[in-house]
């Protein structure tokens, strides 16, 4: 569903619910829902304001990885701004499905590759495994 | 070369019937002097009737049905099913010139080391060139030589090429045998470039023949989007196989990266690196991994890069899959905890399972609470400062409203340590950063509020239709899987013929009175008052958990005293006692949700109802919440909406021993749908999906007939 249609459906659903509650004479729940909705929308606005204006400097989860020798790229850092707002890698168009395949045999020495991957993973400062 | 050569013309089709008549007619009209021609058509699962049509109209064509829609695999199947001197591979959204076959042979006669010869491919609707060979046009993106140029004398002479297209090419059998099967993981597109590189690596030459001509309907049988996806995906695989040290440099020029399709970039790169480990030595692999470590954060970010390497460990089979289960209320022996502990118990041998708690818990306690031994699970306690500062023992996400940062980010960060993260107890503000994430929803208590993250999970698991309905209404989301709670209260001694005149209720004595014990007491008292004969010797037995200082117990006691009839209650009975009550009781009552407006105050599922059914009780339960899914009204029990209905239905069952027995038997059968065995089977399906996401390779779906149309 397109984002625009999703928003329209959301508004339509909310309006239908409100109308139904009023029709039932259930003013108490109507007010509860209205208050909840206003709070949610205000929260969203506040979220955006904070995200755009301050989140980069406020990042609670900024990851202290080893500094790269390469020039910084234009993609966003994965700090709490990112964590709050989207999935790590948003899904994209893919015409395929998945299937399970038999494990492939490595030509490279598995122990060496394993050690290299362990060393690489330990160079990140994101793990807190006890 | 002898005077007569044998050639197998191979063509692969997928819903391409519209093209085949013209193609096959032109193929059989070629000059076949000195040639023994065999034609093989491999069908990749067409739904347009291709196979039958070809068999009826071109019986001389050998038709092979491929079990997968995979072009490269189709070629291997055809080659393996032929024994000719040469194998010509060709598109069929095309027609061929009468000299198509002879044109190949003319060039092959030049040199025995020529392994393959490509045709001149012209667009069918003009005199313009589609391809006279293949070359690298930009950084490992390949294009057709002469593409869209007017056909002129420039390409009128045979010439050696670096790469040839699989659209119209003939291979020498000895070359095919020497190089080996086509790489089926390419599926389609660039498999010919890969094969060309492999031929040259073995010392074979590739040539172009201007006198072998094919007229092609460009992309007549495949979509542009499909072509772009596979070309971009397969480029990384090709580079990883043949030019591994160039792999990292290929990332910024990847169309996936340039179009922001980071998910596709991540997955294609992952499988490309996996392929690299199968054909290069450790030194090369390590060098590439180090380059990826240095550069990948620019493209996928630090977290994405961390995930990539962690995921790679699993994909290469270097460690077990890690599963993290977060339960912020794990210190409490509730139904939700039991549900997840059953999951952990089932998974702990297969995976490296770790629990994440916020408070001090000993997993050994789960043995006492649920009779589950979770010895093979590890655990970790992560305190959330937001709640610690407020002296809150249990995390209540309802308190998080105006904060600038999400207090649950500390858990989000922890999720990176797992391949599969299971958010077990509905804290909807935890953002999953693992490769696969599962949110288990027992009921959507909260509306979508600030920091709502549930829509970021891959799987949204519900415990029944009632929860699913409210997930849709409150969160506007579709659950992905239904996993009924596992109920295992079977007692082999329970027998519908050996029941006592007991009506049983098993529910916690909630302080709020939401389980409606007082209402049931009053109803039973009313029944006894109005129908003393029918209710003679019947007893109401109320069983349930309670906490010290529970004021509702006092209300229950008062109601029992006022009722002045055969009613008992038992708080915090041992499991063995509860089993015995189930065995003895003939009828089971459940009224939680009666006269309630708030959906969360209605029983979301109804585990005790199922427990009673497993012990041959007749359930008479509220017509709401999860009970509707469990009890089929009039068949495996009854459902009521008012206390008057509860009374009437109970009297019906009490007064008809045969009906009571039949219904108890049907209830017992029905309860089998909610037992531990079914739970584990459904959990296995969920885990199979999760594993597929982690370890799966691409496969083209077989469309249904309607989709194909």
Structure summarized in a few sentences:
Chain A is built from five helices and one strand.
Task: Characterise the protein shown here.
The complex is a heterodimer of chains A (130) and B (709). Chain A has helices spanning 3-23, 27-53, 55-58, 80-85, 110-122; one strand at residues 97-99. Chain A is an all-alpha fold and 130 residues long. In chain A, helix 1 runs antiparallel to helix 2. Chain A is elongated and about 75 Å long. Chain A starts with a helix and ends in an 8-residue tail after the last helix. The relative contact order of chain A is 0.07. Chain B has 709 residues and is α/β, with parallel strands linked by helices. Chain B folds into four domains: 5-222, Spore Coat Polysaccharide Biosynthesis Protein SpsA, Chain A (Alpha-Beta Complex), CATH 3.90.550.10; 226-315, no CATH class; 322-398 and 405-482, Rossmann fold (3-Layer(aba) Sandwich); 500-674, 3-Layer(aba) Sandwich (Rossmann fold), CATH 3.40.50. In chain B, strands 1, 2, 3, 4, 5, 6, 7, 10, 11 and 12 form a ten-stranded mixed sheet that branches. Chain B is elongated. Classes of the chains: A mainly alpha (130), B alpha/beta (709). Chains A and B meet through helix 1, helix 2, helix 4, strand 1 and helix 5 of A and helix 7, helix 9, helix 10, helix 14 and helix 23 of B. Strand 1 of chain A pairs antiparallel with strand 26 (697-699) of chain B, so a sheet runs across the interface.
Which structural class should the secondary elements of chain B be placed in? alpha/beta
Helix run count of chain B:
24
Shape of chain A: elongated
- The second-level CATH architecture of the largest domain in chain B is Alpha-Beta Complex
Global morphology of chain B = elongated
How far is the first residue's CA from the last residue's CA of chain B? Answer: 47 Å
| Percent of residues in helices of chain A | 40-55%
**Category by helix and strand content of chain A:** mainly alpha
The number of helical runs of chain A is 5
Average residue-wise pLDDT of chain A:
65
Residues in β-strands, percent of chain B: 15-25%
> How many beta-strand runs of chain A?
1
């Amino acid at each position: 569903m397109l984002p625009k249609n999703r928003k329209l459906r959301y508004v339509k659903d909310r309006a239908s619910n409100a109308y139904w509650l009023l029709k039932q004479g259930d003013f108490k729940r109507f007010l509860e829902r209205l208050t909840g909705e206003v709070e949610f929308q205000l929260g969203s606005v506040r979220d955006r304001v904070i995200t755009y204006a301050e989140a980069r400097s406020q990042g609670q989860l900024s990851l202290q990885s080893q500094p790269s020798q390469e020039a910084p790229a234009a993609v966003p850092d994965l700090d709490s701004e990112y964590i709050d707002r989207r999935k790590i890698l948003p899904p994209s168009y893919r015409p395929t499905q998945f299937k399970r395949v038999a494990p492939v045999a490595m030509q490279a020495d598995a122990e060496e590759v394993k050690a290299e991957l362990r060393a690489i993973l330990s160079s990140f400062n994101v793990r807190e495994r006890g | 070369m002898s005077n007569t050569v044998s050639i197998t013309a191979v063509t692969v089709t997928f819903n391409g019937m519209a093209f085949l008549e013209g193609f096959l007619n032109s193929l059989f009209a070629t000059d076949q002097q000195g040639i023994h021609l065999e034609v093989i058509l491999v069908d990749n699962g067409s739904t347009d009737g291709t196979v039958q049509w070809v068999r009826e109209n071109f019986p001389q064509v050998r038709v092979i049905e491929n079990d997968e829609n995979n072009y490269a695999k189709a070629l291997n199947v055809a080659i393996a099913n032929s024994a000719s001197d040469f194998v010509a591979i060709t598109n069929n959204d095309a027609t061929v010139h009468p000299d198509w076959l002879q044109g190949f042979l003319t060039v092959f006669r030049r040199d025995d080391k020529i392994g393959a010869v490509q045709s001149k491919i012209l667009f069918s609707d003009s005199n313009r060139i589609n391809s006279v060979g293949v070359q690298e046009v930009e950084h490992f993106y390949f294009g057709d030589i002469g593409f869209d140029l007017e056909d002129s004398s420039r390409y009128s002479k045979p010439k050696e090429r670096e790469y040839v297209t699989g659209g119209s090419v003939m291979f020498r059998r000895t070359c095919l045998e020497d190089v080996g099967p086509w790489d089926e993981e390419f599926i389609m597109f660039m498999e010919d470039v890969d094969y060309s590189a492999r031929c040259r690596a073995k010392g074979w030459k590739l040539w172009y023949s201007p006198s072998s001509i094919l007229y092609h309907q460009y992309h007549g049988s495949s979509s542009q989007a499909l072509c772009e996806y596979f070309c971009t995906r397969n480029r990384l695989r090709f580079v990883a196989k043949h030019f591994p040290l160039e792999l990292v440099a290929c990332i910024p020029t990847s169309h996936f990266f340039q179009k922001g399709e980071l998910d596709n970039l991540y997955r294609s790169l992952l499988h490309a690196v996996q392929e690299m480990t199968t054909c290069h030595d450790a030194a090369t692999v390590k060098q590439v991994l180090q380059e990826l470590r240095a550069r990948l954060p620019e493209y996928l970010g630090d977290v994405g890069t961390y995930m990539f390497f962690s995921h790679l460990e699993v994909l290469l089979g270097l460690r077990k899959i890690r599963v993290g289960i977060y339960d912020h209320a794990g210190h409490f022996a509730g139904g939700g905890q039991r549900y997840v502990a059953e999951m952990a118990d089932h998974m702990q041998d297969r995976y490296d399972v770790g629990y994440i708690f916020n408070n001090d818990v000993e997993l050994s306690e789960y043995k006492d609470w649920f009779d589950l031994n979770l010895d093979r699970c590890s655990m970790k306690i992560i305190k959330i400062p937001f709640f610690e500062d407020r002296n809150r023992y249990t995390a209540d996400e309802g308190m998080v409203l105006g904060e600038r940062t999400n207090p649950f980010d500390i858990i989000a960060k922890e999720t990176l340590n797992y391949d599969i993260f299971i958010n077990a107890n509905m804290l909807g503000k935890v953002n999953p950063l693992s490769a696969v994430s599962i949110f288990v929803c027992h009921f959507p208590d909260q509306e979508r509020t600030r920091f709502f993250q549930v829509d970021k999970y891959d799987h949204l698991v519900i415990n029944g239709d009632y929860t699913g309905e409210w997930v849709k209404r409150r969160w506007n989301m579709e659950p992905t899987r239904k996993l009924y709670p596992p109920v295992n209260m079977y007692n082999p001694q329970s027998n519908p013929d050996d029941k006592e005149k007991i009506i049983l209720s098993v529910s916690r004595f909630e302080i709020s009175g939401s389980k409606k014990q007082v209402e049931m007491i009053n109803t039973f008292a009313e029944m006894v008052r109005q129908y003393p004969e029918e209710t003679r010797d019947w007893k109401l037995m109320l069983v349930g958990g309670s906490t010290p200082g529970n004021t509702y117990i006092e209300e229950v006691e008062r109601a029992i005293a006022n009722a002045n009839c055969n009613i008992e209650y038992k708080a915090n009975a041992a499991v063995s006692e509860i089993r015995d009550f189930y065995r003895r009781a003939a009828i089971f009552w459940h009224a939680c949700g009666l006269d309630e407006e708030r959906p969360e105050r209605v029983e979301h599922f109804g585990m005790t109802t199922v427990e009673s059914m497993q012990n041959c009780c007749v359930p008479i339960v509220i017509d709401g919440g999860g009970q509707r899914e469990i009890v089929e009204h009039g068949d495996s029990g009854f459902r009521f909406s008012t206390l008057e209905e509860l009374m009437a239905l109970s009297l019906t069952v009490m007064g008809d021993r045969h009906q009571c027995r039949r219904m108890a038997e049907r209830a017992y059968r029905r309860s089998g749908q909610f037992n531990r065995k079914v739970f584990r089977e459904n959990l296995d399906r969920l885990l199979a999906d999760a594993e597929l996401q982690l370890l799966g390779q691409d496969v083209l779906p077989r469309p249904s007939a309607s989709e194909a149309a």
